[in-house]
Structure formats: C-alpha cells, structure tokens
Specification:
Layout (H helix, E strand, L loop, with lengths): L2 E6 L5 H10 L3 E6 L2 H9 L5 E8 L7 H11 L3 E9 L3 E4 L8 E5 H6 L1 H7 L4 E5 L2 H8 L5 E5 L1 H7 L2 E4 L8 E8 L11 E8 L5 H10 L3 E2 L4 E5 L2 E9 L5 H12 L2 E8 L2 H5 L7
Parallel strand pairs: 1-2, 1-3, 6-7, 6-8
Antiparallel strand pairs: 3-10, 4-10, 5-8, 5-9, 11-14, 11-15, 12-14, 13-14
Length: 279
C-alpha cells in the first residue's frame, strides 16, 4: 500500500503541481483546505508527508510567518526538504480580452500580475478567491469572466489560455516538505539545518560564538519571535558534517532551550539567490 501525502488544495493548484511532479509514483496524494490542516494530517500520522508553501520570490512574506509558526507550534513536525517551483501564471477565459469584466484568482496571484492587469484590463473587477483553481471554476460559469492560473487549471475548467506568462519575472515559490520523524543527517549531501534557540536578542553574539565553535555558518538572516517574554531566534546553519547532538547539548547548556526543526538539501538555485530571504 502506498504512503500518503497531504497538500494545500484543491487540485490544479500549484501545490498540487508540486506534489504530483515529485511524489505521484510513490504516494497517494490528497488535498486539504488549509496549511493548518496539512500540518495536522502529518502530526496525527494520517499522512506520511505534507507539502506547504513557504516563500515566493515576488512576495517574500507570502505564508512565511504562518508556516514557521505552525511548524514551531506542532512540536513533532520536521522539515525534510525544500522544493523550488517555477510559477507560470496564465490568463484563462472563454471571452476576448476586451470583453472581460470580472477576474478571479488568489490575492497573491493578483498581486503578482498587477502590471499586466492594470495595462490590459484596467476596467475589470479583480476578485480574490481561495485559490487559482477556485477562480478558474467560477470564471467558467460566468459570462465575461476570466481567471489566472495554470494550464492544468484552465484545462480542468474548460477555459482557453488568452495570454501566457502574465506574471512578474523570476516567479518562484518554495515549498517545505514536512514529516513526523526527524530527518537523518546521513541522508543529505550538503544540508541546511534548522534550529530554534531561546535567547534574548541582545545576546545574539553568544549564538554566533557557539556556531563558530562547532564550525557552523550562520545564514544571512534569522527570525525574532516573542513567546512568554523571550526572544526566539530561528538559526539556519550550513555544515556538511554536523554533530547535531553535540550542538544541541552545548546550546541547551548555554541558553536553556534549543529545538531541532529539520533540514533540507541546498540546491544550485538556492545558492545563486539571496539566502537572507530564506531565513
């Protein structure tokens, strides 16, 4: 029997594209309505893996805080991979461009296509819905309506592609792959390792000193979080041969609290980008 993978749905969304492209042969795929539900499916053991959007190159804040908070609060969820997906946004409709009155899509997608929309259909009403697939479904049932989405979403809703690739350049989204069991360092070649350390932000130099002791390289950025009066700092480290247990033991002695959040393989694409946006 195949293992199960949960993703943020519905079908024909970009989360579905990522899940289908990478896991369709080894996993039964099923979608849920929210990122919270994906995390819950994995945490409860109903799904072996989950896929959740984390960061977009056009809107680097997209879902990032929500995704981080869910992983942190779940306690038994670990990041085991990061997948990079090129987003291709197309204008979908059964009516000419000049006839479009209502346009449906996810709010983030409307933002990513703002320049095109303002130039070519400035008089249309832009209506935010839950997903690109939902937008395509609604547009297929209305006169003079359109949607923005993938080729698959247009095909499913029986909409024509009026204009291809109307998004901003270099539009990529990162997706976390999450699982219930901690990933093993030996399964990775050059991993980024994620930790959460409880420390007052003014003492960040102590964190840097500890990382140097273990020959780790701090990422260019980290996240400050308040919880019970403390600052939480999420530290992203790079080290090909890291003794995780030794680092956790020393960090716990130094700061009182540390959590291993997971790891993922560093891709060529990530090396070429501004790493600070990934923290």
């Amino acid at each position: 029997m195949k293992k199960k993978l949960s993703y943020l749905g519905p079908e024909q969304t970009y989360s579905h594209e990522v899940a289908y492209k990478n896991f369709r042969h080894k996993f039964d795929l099923y979608w849920v309505k929210s990122i919270d539900q994906v995390v819950e499916e994995v945490s409860s053991g109903k799904a072996n893996l989950g896929i959740i959007p984390f960061w977009n190159s056009y809107e680097d804040h997209i879902k990032q805080g929500q995704t981080q908070e869910l992983i942190i609060s779940a306690k038994n969820i670990f990041v085991s991979d990061v997948l990079v997906h090129n987003i291709r946004l197309n204008l979908l409709s059964n009516f000419p461009l000049t006839k479009i009155k209502n346009l449906y899509s996810a709010q983030a997608v409307l933002n990513q296509c703002k320049k095109f929309l303002e130039k070519h259909i400035p008089r249309a009403k832009f209506i935010a819905v839950s997903s690109t697939a939902e937008g395509a479904r609604i547009a297929s049932q209305q006169e003079f309506a359109a949607a923005i989405g993938s080729v698959a979403a247009g095909r499913e809703a029986r909409l024509h592609i009026i204009k291809k690739n109307i998004h901003s350049p270099q539009n990529r989204t990162l997706f976390f792959v999450i699982q219930k069991d901690p990933p093993r360092l030996q399964d990775y070649n050059t991993p980024y390792v994620l930790f959460l350390i409880k420390v007052d932000f003014k003492d960040i130099t102590r964190v840097v000193d500890l990382l140097r002791k273990h020959k780790l390289r701090l990422s260019l950025n980290w996240e400050r979080r308040k919880e019970h009066g403390y600052q939480f700092i999420e530290v992203q480290c790079f080290q090909a041969a890291l003794d995780i247990h030794s680092f956790i033991r020393d960090a716990r002695d130094e700061f009182g609290y540390v959590r291993f959040l997971g790891m993922y393989e560093v891709s060529v694409w990530i090396f070429k980008q501004d790493i600070s946006k990934l923290a």
